[in-house]
Write a structure and sequence with these properties.
The complex is a heterotrimer of chains A (321), B (438) and C (284). Helices cover 79% and strands 1% of the residues of chain A. Chain A is mainly α and 321 residues long. Chain A has a single domain (6-320), classed as Orthogonal Bundle (ABC transporter involved in vitamin B12 uptake, BtuC). Chain A has a two-stranded antiparallel sheet with strand order 1-2. Classes of the chains: A mainly alpha (321), B alpha/beta (438), C mainly alpha (284).
């Protein structure tokens, strides 16, 4: 059922899972807090990777999907006092419907053009939240005092990690099935896939809805973790930048790469804070990202692969002599 | 003289040996410091004003032998880059990594709203010096137990707007004879709420009719169509509400030589750097400003603060602190005065009680000039008939002798100088129409 | 009422055309989006500010310095980023986006995040009835039309221009006929940097300088390219006027706060209905 190499990868997931489960035992709660952010960015990166990593439909509008999810649950809990076990599924559902909005242009355009139309969706949303019914959405200031799912650094860590790990592993397994292969081949040659008798429209719709589902779930949980929501924090180029760069710096299309990218970016920025507290931090962060990306556009995932292969080959060579 | 690392070590060892032989007074040196955290931007004029105000106060307190039985104050800072999510991370960092006892904030509206849930979770005493959003005060009023550790020592925007109506009545209507205005405001929450307050009060209280409303996108590049529309409406003046990129409407107003006067709220014009930032194209702009503003006469203590500020930071911008620089300076003093009486920042309720009792009054020539006290729980402001729990105790009820004004009106003249033009008690100049207005 | 829309609308459109042209060129020739284009605009604005307003070198020399600095920046970006990524469109888009973010961070460190207003390039205003426009914007619009006309001639009449057109139509074919696409791309990036910086001077003297100012003109440029269709200078010119007029009409007649929303809706509609734009064709 799964492509080869799955067992070896599975081992990697287990090591990663155990290490992460053990983290709160020896890390300070400040560090744990940083990892909560990393987990959420990783969820968003996974969502992006499902849609864009393999299919060639590059989304610049993921903050739009995440924001839809976030605002849905924020509005329902804030104004109607609805419980989270209703509002979060509702948010996921609404985001999935919004995801089909993305799907419509994708019937006609792809690549760069598709990226631009999704970017326009994000900017449109940014404009609309402020203008339309600001007394309900909170306008530019947004809403605060939203209920939290669990409290405290450690419980939020386990919650976010659990969701991220489950989604990540599920998606990683998915791309190793025949369905995943078909999605991947859309990115290479959509006409050829169609010629093979597969319904590419259905395949794309599946990828889009799945991605929107993850974005909606992640977005809803994220804003309940933050406890507040504001348009400037969500429909923003720097938020888009974090998600996009996490995926591409990590290695798009691999699911594990984007997770690594998300962790790398979040941790780099936070661990620099005590040493360079001011605005120079963002300059160094940006330059480091740029250099790394230009040196290896296929990402950290590829770098690790190269390193592992190098060690394995070295080991084999020594064994054979 | 430079001391090498090894000799420093020797000195330290010697000091320790000496110290171990003594008791009592010298132990003060070894006490844990009190940690004050700053949350806000590191690079903006707003952020720098709060940082520097707090820094000066903390250094003065430390130089005077420390606080709470000779403990030193350590000042740590976390950058928000004026970004909501970064603000939340910064708050977590201050509490979790730096174990701060008290946080002073120079955050803007949505950033403060962003970290507010963290404050409620950690229960860290926090004082905001910049945001004036009445919505945060409403949270304290409505959910006191959850948000009681929050204080704001700038008058909230509702108080600002209320006093501004008086300016409309006394100066714009009575003195200048204006009868109609174009209300032009940005589509941010700030713009909409201020404009709403003005709209509700200007006509009934000051008798000035709003002949046209123009809401504009905060990212507007080109104000020419907006000004053209305003002029063709035939109104006597433009009432502008702008908090984002406020130099743009101000300088385009001058570049376009718009033939009717303009007043209102222009956040950029709060700072002394406004003139240079507009390249000298800030003439005519008048804006309400929280106090203490530019162009305002100061009491002795505040004047001394400015002398120290200038000596310390010279020509580094902001060359003159914004109002929140003063708020941070006095905020540190009030927070620690409360802590001295309460025996520290913990237990929290003791500190809150003492902070609520805090009342720092500043006099100029025998007159009450500024006042840093807070509205108590259940206390009703007589003019608006509502509560402002933990907001600074502003005075918007005649005869205005009971505290700081909520705001003053400042005008920038064509020669680059600025003056307070309202209320009369604080005025140092008069309202003037720009020379190109006929 | 008509003049209140037509005159400012026309001038704003001219400025938009100038903003978009450098972006369109790279898209047409290399088929890649330079998401760092906004950084060229911002860079030009800040260099001009430093030179004219802080160092006091005079307006004309500062204009030349800033434009030249833009050309240099375009060349540098091409040599250290674009050439290495060998036509991988996604990689180029992402790395130029990171480049823009890095530029923004650098501007904050060097110039502080406070916005700065600038002296107009040409002071004074033109009054037509109730309508007021600045000479600055008039000059920007005229410059834009002149630059576009010059570019039209350059592409059509010169040897390099024809080589550029050949690369934009068919890169492989161009190589066979002895054109070095690398050299052509280098020229295009330099030209784009210079045009971006020039647009930045006009934009910044008209509005203001701020470290986040790269986003708005980038979105304008993207809108112009989408609406006009890639590879068409004339289409770009028309699209800039459609967008400029749309903005002015929205601001004056409908509601000023919907200015940005209208442009976004236009982009989405055009991309869905006519993905190739109104004047899309495969060549420059």
């Amino acid at each position: 059922m799964f492509a080869k190499g799955t067992n070896k990868g599975f081992l990697g997931w287990m090591i990663f899972g155990i290490a992460m489960l053990a983290l709160p035992l020896f890390a300070s709660s400040a560090t744990v807090r940083i990892f909560v952010f990393a987990n959420y960015i990783a969820i968003f990166a996974i969502s992006w990777d499902v849609l864009s990593g393999r299919t060639g439909y590059i989304s610049f509008g993921h903050p739009f999907l995440i924001g839809i999810g976030g605002y849905t649950t924020a509005l329902l809990t804030h104004h109607l006092d609805m419980p989270l076990y209703i509002t979060i599924p509702a948010a996921v559902l609404v985001t999935m419907i919004a995801g089909t909005l993305f799907f419509l242009p994708a019937l006609r355009i792809r690549g760069t053009y598709f990226a631009l139309v999704t970017l326009a969706f994000m900017e449109l949303m940014y404009g609309l939240v402020q203008v339309v019914a600001p007394d309900i959405t909170g306008g530019t200031r947004g809403l605060t005092g939203l209920p939290s799912i669990v409290t405290g650094a450690v419980s939020n860590y386990y919650l976010s990690f659990g969701v991220m790990f489950t989604l990540g592993l599920a998606m990683w397994l998915l791309i190793r099935t025949r369905l995943g292969t078909a999605l991947g081949s859309i990115g290479m040659n959509e006409e050829a896939v169609r010629a093979c008798g597969l319904n590419t429209t259905k395949l794309k719709l599946f990828a889009f809805t799945l991605s929107a589902m993850i974005a909606g779930l992640g977005g809803a949980m994220y804003i309940h973790y933050l406890g507040s929501i504001a348009p400037r924090g969500l429909f923003d180029v720097s938020f888009l930048f974090t998600i996009l760069v996490a995926c591409l710096l990590g290695g798009a299309g691999t699911i594990t790469g984007p997770i690594m990218g998300a962790f790398f970016l979040t941790l780099l920025l936070e661990f620099l804070r005590p040493y360079i507290p001011g605005s120079e931090r963002y300059l160094i962060y940006g330059v480091a990202t740029l250099v790394l990306y230009v040196l290896q556009p296929r990402g950290i995932h590829r770098l690790i692969q190269i390193t592992v292969n190098w060690f394995v080959e070295g080991f084999m060579r020594r064994k054979s002599t | 003289m430079k001391i090498s690392k090894s000799s420093k070590l020797l000195l330290a060892v010697a000091a320790m040996l000496l110290g171990s032989g003594m008791s009592g007074s010298s132990i003060a040196q070894d006490k844990d410091p009190i940690v004050v955290g700053y949350i806000g931007s590191f690079a903006s004029d707003t952020g720098l004003s709060t940082i520097r105000g707090a820094e000066i106060a903390i250094d003065e307190l430390n130089a005077a032998g420390g606080v709470l039985d000779g403990r030193m104050i350590k000042f740590v800072k976390a950058d928000t880059r004026e970004d909501v999510a970064e603000g939340i991370k910064a708050y977590e960092y201050l509490v979790e990594s730096e174990n701060v006892d008290f946080i002073i904030s120079g955050s803007i509206d949505d950033v403060s709203l962003g970290w507010l849930p963290r404050m409620a979770e950690y229960k860290t005493p926090t004082l905001d010096t910049w945001t004036s959003y009445v919505g945060i005060i409403d949270l304290v009023v409505n959910e006191y137990d959850k948000y009681k550790m929050y204080f704001m020592n700038i008058a909230c925007d509702e108080a600002l707007a209320t006093l501004y109506i008086d300016f409309g009545k006394d100066v714009l209507a009575k003195e200048m004879g204006y009868t109609s205005t174009v209300l032009m405001y940005e589509d941010t929450a700030f713009g909409v709420s201020i404009a709403g307050l003005v709209e509700g009060l200007l006509a009934p209280e000051a008798g000035i009719k709003i002949s046209e409303k123009i809401i504009y996108d905060a990212n507007t590049v080109d104000f020419a169509p907006l000004f053209n529309k305003a002029v063709s409406s035939g109104a006597d003046f433009i009432y502008l509400v702008s908090s984002v990129r406020s130099q743009v409407p101000a300088s385009q107003y001058v570049k376009l030589q718009v033939p009717i006067p303009m007043t209102g709220v222009n956040v950029a014009a709060f700072g002394q750097d406004f003139w240079n930032d507009t390249g000298g194209l800030g003439a005519g702009t008048s804006t309400l400003s929280p106090v203490p503003s530019v162009g305002m006469a100061l009491d002795d203590r505040s004047a001394e603060f400015i002398t120290n500020y200038k000596a310390r930071y010279g020509s580094e911008r902001p060359i003159y602190p914004h109002f929140n620089g003063f708020n941070a300076y006095y905020g540190i003093y009030t927070a620690f005065a409360a802590a001295e009486r309460a025996g520290g920042f913990a237990p929290l309720d003791d500190w809150i009680r003492e902070m609520e009792n805090e009342d720092l009054k500043l006099y100029k020539d025998g007159e009450l000039w500024f006042r840093y006290a807070f509205w108590k729980r259940g206390e009703i402001e007589p003019r608006t008939q509502r509560e402002y729990t933990h907001n600074v105790k502003f005075d918007i009820t005649p005869p205005f002798d009971d505290g700081s004004p909520a705001m003053v009106v400042v005008q920038w003249y064509e020669d680059g100088s600025s003056a307070v033009i309202y209320p009369p008690k604080f005025a140092t100049g008069k309202f003037q129409e720009p020379s190109w207005v006929k | 009422m008509l003049i209140q829309i037509l005159l400012p609308g026309l001038l704003l459109s001219g400025l938009y055309a100038l903003i978009a042209i450098g972006f369109t060129m790279i898209f047409s020739v290399g088929r890649v989006l330079n998401l760092g284009y906004g950084a060229f605009i911002m860079f030009g604005g800040y260099i001009y500010y430093q030179s004219a307003q802080i160092l006091g070198l005079g307006k004309v020399p500062s204009f030349v310095i800033a434009t030249a600095a833009g050309v240099l920046l375009g060349l540098i970006v091409y040599v250290i980023l674009i050439r290495k990524l060998k036509g991988d469109a996604i990689a180029i888009e992402i790395s130029t986006l990171i480049f823009a973010i890095v530029t923004q961070a650098a501007i904050i460190v060097v110039f502080s995040p406070s916005p700065k207003s600038m002296w107009p390039l040409i002071p004074g205003v033109l009054r037509v009835g109730d309508v007021i426009v600045t000479y600055n914007l008039v000059v920007a619009a005229v410059t834009s039309w002149v630059v576009l006309a010059a570019l039209f001639l350059f592409i059509g009449k010169t040897h390099i221009g024809r080589a550029i057109r050949a690369v934009s139509m068919d890169p492989k074919g161009a190589v066979i006929s002895g054109i070095d696409p690398d050299r052509i791309n280098l020229i295009i990036w330099g030209l784009s940097g210079g045009l971006g910086a020039m647009a930045g001077i006009f934009l910044a003297t008209y509005t203001q300088l701020a470290p986040a100012m790269w986003v708005a003109p980038l979105i304008i440029a993207v809108a112009v390219v989408i609406v006009g269709g890639i590879g068409s200078i004339l289409g770009g010119l028309v699209a800039a006027h459609v967008i400029g007029m749309l903005e002015t009409i929205t601001t004056t007649l409908i509601a000023a706060e919907l200015r940005g929303v209208a442009t976004m809706l236009l982009i989405i509609l055009v991309l869905i209905i006519a993905p190739k734009g109104l004047f899309g064709k495969a060549e420059l």
